[in-house]
Amino acid sequence: MASLIACPHCGRRPKEEFTVKGAALARPEPQAGADAWFDHVYLRDNPRGPYQEFWHHTSGCRRWLVVTRDTATHEVEEARDAALWNRETAR
Amino acid sequence: MTSYRLSQGGLIDRARPLSFSFDGKPMSGFAGDSLASALLANGQRLMGRSFKYHRPRGVLTAGAAEPNALMTIGKGGRTEPNTRATLQELYDGLTARSQNRWPSLDFDIGALNGLLSPFLSAGFYYKTFMWPAAFWEKLYEPFIRKAAGLGEAAKESDPDSFEKCWAHCDLLVIGAGATGLAAALTAGRAGARVILVDEQAELGGSLLSETATIGGVPAAQFAREATAELEALPNVRTLARTTAFGRYDGNVFGAVERVQKHVATPQVGRPVERLWRIVAGRALLATGAEERPLVFGGNDIPGVMMAGAARSYLNRTAVAPARQMAIFTTNDSGYALARDLEACGVALTAIIDSRPEGAAPGLYKGQARILTDALVRDAHGGKSLSAITIARQGRTETLRLDGLAVSGGFSPVIHLACHRGDKPVWSDAQGAFLAEDRKGLALAGAAAGLSGLAACYEAGARKAVALLDQLGIAATAGSVPTVEGDIVAPATKPLWSIPGIRGKAFIDFQNDVHRADLALAVREGYAHVELAKRYTTNGMATDQGKLSNVNAIGLLAEARGVSPAEVGTTTFRPFYTPVSFGALAGSSHGKHFQPVRQSPLHGWAKKNGARFVETGLWYRSAWFPRTGETTWRESVDREVRTVREAAGLCDVSMLGKIEITGKDAALFLDRVYCNGFANLPVGKARYGLMLREDGFIYDDGTTSRLAEDRFFMTTTTAYAAGVLNHLEFCAQALWPELDVRLASVTDQWAQMAIAGPLARTILQEIVDEDISNEAFPFLGARAVSLFNGALKGRLFRISFSGELAYELAVPAGYGESVADALMEIGKPKGLCAYGVEALSVLRIEKGHVTHNEINGTVVPADLGFGRMVSAKKADFIGKHMLAREGLTAGNRHQLVGVVPLDPAASFRTGAHILAKGAAATLENSLGHVSSSCYSPHVGSTIGLALVRAGSSRHGEEVMIWNGLRGEYTPGRLCDPVFIDPENAKLKI
Ligand SMILES: [Zn+2]
């Protein structure tokens, strides 16, 4: 009912303020090829355990975050700004 | 009516008598009574009829687990069905009604179901009522519903208010008995932020029903002193009448506080219930234990009661549970009741102890006959207990009495510890399921299997110290006060089945599941605990099996010859007890259900006589009827013709508006639109198509370049929020290196479309700049000065209608006055207000698409926008998936126009298109009509349709088939642009 997300900008806020987009995946390079794009758009892992997702603090700071959530327990391990994630991870 | 009230004792206030009624009968009680205790005091044992067999039922417990004494409280919109009389505080004027009986509680025709019981056994839903199938809906289901009902919800709306709130604490203590009070005192004295919740009206838990003394004072007084100390501490919040109903991730607990459910007329301005979400650093479950019933014949007859409940009625509310009692116990706790009954002068015939060795030596010093190694086999009586049959060492004996208290041991209340999927563990030593401490959560006292007040107090304090230590808060447990008269009942071997039973022996009282049902489930192969639950419905009532589940598991284990550990439990889920919809909805009802969005031009539309239509949260002006017009179509046709012949003004403020700035704004737009924007000159607008990454169209709109580094985007009304979220995602998560800023300005601008051949003439009167075709051509976009410099606005020469048209944006606060001025100026030229209905007709006539066509299955080429998609750009959202074979195939559904062959005929949106002569089947459907309207310009109904290979089928005769209404309209496919295909009107 009521998980709290520790937004790096706003602090711990109720999940109702957020919108989830799904798996946090780096966008392929334009020339990555049809298979890579197909994977990116349609194929998702469904792990039991920690999973990185894009969450938007829609009713808060309006920043996109990368939230690490345990799919079995819903425990949120980490939430970081997606721009930071992009610079450090997605490249 | 004889009173069962004792002349002294208890926590009731005899100086405050309260009157109430039950099934219309006036009765009286005292402040401090529960409805159940007051009914018992008035001699009202019969409190309800059972679910399936309509058996007479009395109160079994004194708390949250009550399965029998469910009543309807209150009147009108305040009617509350299925209220547990055990938790309902008595108030003056309370009206209670029994449920599930007809015509009356005393004489209930449904009791005949008892005679039909062979047909109502386990699985009866799946057997007796299966055939013939048609009977289910017409006969069986209504019959079962009527016969096996709970209370009825009120038809009136609830006049009261509810609210929701959050709270944060270091330590949440759930349950305010000896354990919980000790924990809260320990943590509170250490300065920790503490929240203590308890479902009862008063903190104290079982201390309020105790005769022991703690620290030299009666247990109840000790509880009141502890409560007073806690309430004086600024770092402690105590919440009585509050049930913690669920544990969620992040150690967040849901709790519902019944703020004003114990008063006749709730104060206005305060909620009747409050839903708490409590974020707990650590939580301690001090939820106690539930006493287990014993499964003998007639164990549901009014007068049979849990021993702990009997003790509570006796000690807390000074009510004798009966005139002549016996106690049937498997453990020492039954002897505490024996002692108290005798102290109050209630006759106690016998104690029937299932153990060969009986009670601990010296525990009981009273006069009652003690029968060890004995079992109650059957209880007798109709609406009230009259006798019991005891089996002892091969012989039976019948005792005449009117009250039997039962104790089958204790099940710790571990629900909240198991709400996150953790499984309870069977303990042979405890004869019960226990829960383990978890991250952030511990159990203490009776909830952890302890017995005795001193042991519970000590454990509560000790566990609080340990939990606070995990948070770095130092606390000390202090010494345990001396307890006199403490009865410690060591766990004993559970007693599951009793041999030789004659009558129905109930396991689940609320759902009328008895022992034979469970045996049948086992025989028929449904012995797995989850299957047995569904097959028999054991544990599926509103009490969620609080009294029945462990007995059912024990009996299943016995039948299968395994340990209860092997049988396991069913899954624990919130809610612990039922929570009202009102509490969950909070303030989100009535006008607070959702916000209303009104355009800055709402007032203008209103005074022009608009009829409004709800579009999402918006109220949009739909049409503007004039005197003499009797149907909406008359008004819409007139508005459409006026726009085509003179001019109209339409409110388009609700389109999404996004300001996009930054040195990389043009590059950013190039990446989010499939067509090019980098080369858009300053002062120009361009239609843009935004794709999803999978290549399908997401949204469309126009975007104008106001400066090198400043763009103004419009989106569709429905996708305004979604597009901004999407753009923010692109800017932040995909391309954070781009210098681009986004701001929603939807509410900052009032925007109006002025369309029609006379639009320029009218507008020029208020626009200071030259807006001639030469100075301000089609797709121009610029800041303008209005009313001789009085106001700044923005003007866009764009057209949705196909006519010479402009959109004028002015700061929201000026919208109404500007629209008024334009109406005034335009009046002599025939300017009219037009609404979204006319807007829609105009756009269908022009072949413009909306989300009727952009329905998630179309790519640009499907709508004739194939050439818009940039081939030059290396990358944009959707580019890479758009090239897929299936999205470029020639037989895709493509946009076409459709008209009826007979102009007098019509068709509707959603109708299928069939090839001429094809059978009307979905397999033969070539596509569907996505938009339709009556076109005054064409003089018939027209439509836009998505049809297989539609762009190459213009001129083909088809059948327009509406299968839902059985309508067949011969038609012809055509170009989707019905008006001015050369766009000459746009450029005049
Ligand atoms: Zn935030």
From TrEMBL, chain A:
Molecular functions per Gene Ontology: sarcosine oxidase activity
Domain of life: Bacteria
Coiled-coil regions, chain positions: none
Pfam families in the cross-refs: SoxD
Cleavable signal peptide: none
GO biological process, one term: tetrahydrofolate metabolic process
Protein name, entry field: Sarcosine oxidase subunit delta
Annotated source species: Xaviernesmea rhizosphaerae
TrEMBL record, chain B:
GO biological process: tetrahydrofolate metabolic process
Listed Gene3D superfamilies: 2Fe-2S iron-sulphur cluster binding domain, sarcosine oxidase, alpha subunit, N-terminal domain, FAD/NAD(P)-binding domain, Probable tRNA modification gtpase trme, domain 1
SoxA A3 domain mapped to chain residues: 503-586
Occurrences of domain GCVT N-terminal (ranges): 601-873
Domain of life, per lineage: Bacteria
Domain Aminomethyltransferase C-terminal residue range list: 894-980
Single GO molecular function: sarcosine oxidase activity
Family: Belongs to the GcvT family.
Protein name: Sarcosine oxidase subunit alpha
